[in-house]
Design brief:
With 68 residues, the protein is mainly α. It has one domain (3-67). It has helices spanning 3-12, 29-32, 56-67; strands at residues 23-24, 44-45. InterPro entries: Peripla_BP_I (IPR028082).
Length: 68
């Protein structure tokens, strides 16, 4: 997949979401663990679910899913 190299090159070139926002339809949580995600703040990801989201709604969902 080309997501990681693409995001790395955006960061290398200094392209920020405020300049050119990117929406990804195929980037996953596992891929993002291998790169510095700070430069990605403000870009969008659709289609995938990120279990690691640290907020009360997601924690409740994960807890209910595991109980199911």
């Amino acid at each position: 997949d080309s997501n990681v190299p693409f995001y790395k090159e955006l960061a290398n070139q200094g392209v920020k979401a405020t300049d050119v926002p990117v929406i990804a339809f195929s980037v996953g949580e596992e891929e993002l663990r291998g790169i510095d995600t700070k430069p990605l703040v403000g870009n969008l990801a659709a289609w995938n679910y990120f279990e690691s989201l640290d907020n009360p709604t997601n924690k409740q969902f994960v807890s209910q899913w595991k109980a199911y």
